């Protein structure tokens, strides 16, 4: 537990991202201890059928990973498996310092992850999330619950993961006014559009490939209908501009109507079609929109290809800052979760113990 040197993690969801995260943390255990003096253990991992539990935080994560990769159910892991143990029961009964949410994003109401996050905070855990659902619907409620308890909420993995978006806006651009944000924030659609551009294939073919890479959402309509991009923009707008937005407030168009013919026409004109998300921070209310656009070849986002992403901030005093790369992948999402977990361990916990101050940001 907190202060004993090891931070224990309760992980919800053991799919592409959950597995990549558990494995990354286990494989980097010695490196993290050596470089940062921080050590993480897992006290519970939960998926839809049950859980594995070890309140001491010594779950043999790599063995569990191998067990699941061999096609066996998580909850059937010898001795530590708990068939039928659900997320809420695990949150209420298994001690942890940090709860990681990596279950599927639900656009309709953010559940059940929204309840998981609030219960995790009530149980006194910091929360880091790859899941956008809770925060598109209940951002302010969740942040208030965290602030009241002096707990941190990390959203790097939910806001384009390996591509830093919040860090750039909040840290690198501190003191500058952000006039506009535009970006390619969904790797799946950028992968599909790139394949269509290169090979003339239909969008369904590119989607199958993105699913095999493990980057498409559990429900891939979120990707191709533009909602994953919109959800990331809502989180960025709510965090950076205190916009108070939900999915009801955004104009979203995806790529399902982008035909090979339209791609060809754009190419003949020296243009490239990309799914672009925009935030206009100074409009009231803050305006967020998503849709396919035919960019001229020299546009800073035109060369972003495959599952890579990019974000571009226009500022009053630093000019235009564009960050690109950070391709979508379960490993990239895992690395973003690890970044938030480390930051909580290094800065939040220590400053809390020194000053007893609360903060909602890791
Ligand atoms: N894939 C990526 O590259 C990225 C994904 N994300 C986000 O990460 C989250 C997870 O994505 P991903 O790993 O790809 O999705 P997967 O579909 O691969 O994995 C989801 C996991 O959650 C489990 N699960 C579903 N419902 C529950 C529940 N009620 N309680 C406990 N576990 C549950 C599933 O169990 P079971 O398999 O048994 O059904 C599965 O283990 C999503 O919210 C996504 O938006 C963020 C960044 C990148
Ligand atoms: N489906 C997303 C991954 C998670 O955010 C993407 O394709 O970028």
TrEMBL record:
NADPH binds at residue 132. One of its GO terms (molecular function) is homoserine dehydrogenase activity. The keyword NADP applies. L-homoserine binds at residue 217. This is Homoserine dehydrogenase. The keyword Amino-acid biosynthesis applies. Keywords: Amino-acid biosynthesis, Methionine biosynthesis, NADP, Oxidoreductase, Threonine biosynthesis. The active site is at 232 (proton donor). It comes from Desulfacinum hydrothermale DSM 13146. NADP(+) binds at residues 13-18. It is an enzyme of class 1 (oxidoreductase). Residues 164-341 form the Homoserine dehydrogenase catalytic domain. Its EC number is 1.1.1.3. It catalyses: L-homoserine + NADP(+) = L-aspartate 4-semialdehyde + NADPH + H(+). One of its GO terms (biological process) is methionine biosynthetic process. It holds the Pfam family Homoserine_dh. Pathway: Amino-acid biosynthesis; L-threonine biosynthesis; L-threonine from L-aspartate: step 3/5; Amino-acid biosynthesis; L-methionine biosynthesis via de novo pathway; L-homoserine from L-aspartate: step 3/3. Belongs to the homoserine dehydrogenase family.
